[in-house]
């Protein structure tokens, strides 16, 4: 048999796939056949492993790489070897690539030194089929197969594969020219830039009528080389070739997105859908417009926009977010109900994918709960408690209170109270309180309901809730006890916004909570509603004092007055203009909260705001109570 150069080169490729570790029968498999293979892990990274599995992808032409879906193949151990079988479909497949891994510790792999293990396809004459070699390179460059392994492909090997494919099948150059050049650019060999540019120009010049895809590929290659003028020139040639094509649509879609004037953006969007009614950019633009109507507070316009919107362009997540915010803020409730009902209708009409992922069912259940939770919130805020209650009952994981949400639990209880069904949900609600899945609103509602029951009063209700919380409060107290400090509390004397002198000496024997803040500090301001709640909790206690020390303001005093005038906080605000008090109390950043005990010593210090107002109130209240008890 004559041994041609391309056969020699291909033989080198096959030899590099570690025959000692991997072999298969038939030796020259064809489409429609079952291939049996043997893998020997000896002398590989999996030599000592016993729980092995194979992962494989089938590959074809670059245009058919959508078939390259990673799949597991079962291995059967026979002595020191592992046996497996793979079927080669009759259509579109030019080969299969595999790697092997520990099925439990999946990052333990044998990748055949980065080349993977290959089963190429042959024709009826026993010749390697076109794309059997180039397709291997496409697995590395056009699929995500290696992502599972956390490794990257070797551009030198990819270039070798592409070059061998084109040596054997020169007529396949239109399939591989851009991928080969891209791989050569990644090699970054000396002089690669001019060589790659020459390759682009040569190929485009050789084409009697370059296609839009070829111009796009050329533009991308020029961009990767940093030659943006030539990339732009290629795109302009493509636009002239296809005035309604993807690049023109992309530019027009971007102009809609970037239009700052809302009225002009709406007009630009209408012009776009008239000109490109089937554009793939319509879905993204629909999200932009939905968000635009909401941000411009045109809720009636949003409803008119959503009502005729095709299902394919309706983003459930965006609708759910907007509907929930409207419902939570108790505004445009009729519109919020319409939006969430629309989202639920679209969700229920979605077909099951032909190849659903392993978590599809679970993900669908999560999405359904999110949508229905918003629907219940919209109903509840309209006082439609009887309609909201059964929805909350389905949404809440009543058999898994550990994974419940405190705010949703609160709304569930409120609906139960308003529909006289508290006894039915009481065991669940009590469990939520006991494990810390209850916010202040829930506990207040539960206490007030309990106080109204026959034979009860507010004192008994307080004791009832306190008993439910006893264990978790004890655990939290133990945790906070470990965080208590014991440092001297420097004396201070400041003037507050009302001109009064605020002196530490006036608060001897009391617990003092100092909150260091500034008007420009976002987390400081965000924590104020919670701090108001904490202050309210002790408003009748003469032995607890809250002081909100403005420091590091860096601006005119009037800014502080303006801020307090705009907000309904009844805070005492001493002003630390020289930051002397902040420095004395070791304030490294704001907000910082410092608690001084009755003994006049600093016992607690925390910086920042977690974003959880309930936790902030609970933590400060526990610290204050512990210090009052002499802890």
UniProtKB/TrEMBL annotation:
* SUPFAM superfamilies hit by this protein: Thioredoxin-like
Endpoints of the signal sequence: 1-20
One Pfam match, given by its short name, reads AhpC-TSA
User: Which of UniProt's keywords are assigned here?
Assistant: Redox-active center, Signal
Q: Which GO terms describe its biological process?
A: response to stress
CDD domains listed in its UniProt record:
TlpA_like_family
Name the domain of life: Bacteria
* Record InterPro entries: AhpC/TSA, Thioredoxin-like_sf, Thioredoxin_CS, Thioredoxin_domain, Thioredoxin_ResA/DsbE_sf, TPR-like_helical_dom_sf
Which GO terms label this protein's molecular function in UniProt? antioxidant activity; oxidoreductase activity
The chain positions of domain Thioredoxin read: 483-629
Q: Which PANTHER family match?
A: THIOL:DISULFIDE INTERCHANGE PROTEIN DSBE, THIOREDOXIN-LIKE PROTEIN HI_1115
Q: Please state what the protein is called.
A: TlpA family protein disulfide reductase
């Amino acid at each position: 048999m004559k041994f041609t150069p391309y056969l020699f080169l291909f033989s080198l490729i096959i030899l590099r796939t570690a025959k000692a570790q991997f072999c298969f029968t038939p030796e020259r498999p064809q489409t429609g056949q079952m291939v049996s293979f043997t893998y020997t892990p000896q002398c590989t990274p999996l030599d000592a492993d016993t729980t092995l599995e194979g992962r494989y992808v089938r590959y074809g032409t670059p245009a058919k790489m959508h078939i390259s879906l990673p799949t597991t193949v079962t291995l059967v151990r026979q002595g020191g070897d592992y046996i497996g079988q793979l079927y080669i479909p009759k259509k579109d497949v030019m080969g299969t690539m595999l790697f092997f891994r520990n099925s439990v510790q999946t990052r333990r792999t044998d990748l055949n030194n980065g080349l993977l293990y290959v089963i190429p396809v042959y024709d009826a004459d026993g010749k390697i089929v076109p794309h059997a070699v180039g397709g291997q390179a496409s697995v590395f460059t056009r699929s995500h197969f290696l992502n599972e392994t956390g490794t990257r492909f070797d551009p030198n090997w990819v270039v070798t594969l592409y070059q061998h494919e084109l040596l054997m099948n020169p007529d396949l150059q239109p399939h591989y020219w851009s991928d080969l050049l891209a791989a050569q650019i990644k090699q970054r060999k000396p002089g690669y830039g001019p060589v790659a540019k020459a390759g682009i120009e040569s190929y485009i010049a050789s084409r009697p009528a370059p296609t839009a895809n070829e111009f796009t590929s050329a533009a991308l290659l020029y961009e990767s080389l940093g030659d943006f003028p030539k990339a732009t020139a290629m795109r302009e040639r493509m636009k002239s070739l296809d005035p309604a094509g993807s690049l023109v649509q992309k530019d027009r879609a971007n102009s809609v997105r970037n239009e700052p004037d809302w009225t002009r953006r709406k007009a630009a969007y209408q012009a776009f859908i008239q000109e490109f009614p089937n554009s793939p950019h319509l879905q993204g633009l629909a999200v932009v417009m939905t968000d635009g109507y909401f941000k411009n507070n045109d809720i009636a316009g949003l409803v008119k926009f959503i009502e005729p919107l095709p299902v394919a362009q309706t983003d459930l997540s965006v609708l759910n977010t907007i509907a929930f915010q409207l419902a939570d803020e108790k505004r445009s409730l009729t519109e919020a109900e319409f939006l969430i009902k629309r989202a639920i209708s679209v969700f229920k009409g979605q077909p099951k994918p032909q190849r659903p992922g392993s978590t599809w069912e679970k993900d669908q259940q999560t999405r359904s709960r999110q949508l229905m939770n918003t629907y219940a919130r919209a109903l509840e805020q309209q006082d439609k408690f009887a309609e909201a209650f059964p929805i909350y009952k389905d949404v809440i994981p009543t058999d898994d209170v550990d994974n419940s949400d405190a705010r949703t639990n609160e709304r569930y209880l409120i609906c139960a109270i308003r529909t006289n069904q508290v006894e039915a949900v009481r065991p669940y609600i009590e469990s939520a309180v006991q494990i810390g899945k209850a916010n202040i609103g829930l506990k207040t509602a539960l206490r007030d309901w309990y106080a109204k029951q026959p034979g009860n009063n507010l004192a008994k209700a307080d004791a009832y809730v306190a008993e439910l919380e006893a264990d978790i409060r004890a655990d939290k107290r133990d945790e906070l006890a470990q965080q208590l400090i014991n440092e001297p509390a420097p004396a201070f004397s400041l003037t507050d916004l009302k001109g009064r002198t605020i002196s530490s000496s006036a608060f001897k024997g009391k617990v003092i909570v100092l909150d260091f803040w500034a008007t420009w500090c976002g987390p400081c301001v965000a924590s104020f509603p919670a701090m108001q709640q904490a202050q309210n909790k002790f408003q009748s206690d003469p032995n607890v004092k809250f002081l909100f020390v403005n420091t590091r303001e860096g601006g005119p005093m009037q800014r502080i007055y303006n801020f307090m005038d705009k907000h309904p906080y009844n805070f005492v605000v001493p002003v630390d203009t020289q930051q002397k008090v902040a420095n004395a109390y070791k304030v490294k950043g704001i907000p910082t909260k410092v608690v001084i005990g009755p003994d006049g010593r600093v016992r607690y210090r925390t910086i920042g705001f977690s974003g959880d107002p309930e936790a902030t109130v609970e933590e400060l209240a526990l610290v204050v109570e512990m210090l009052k008890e002499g802890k």
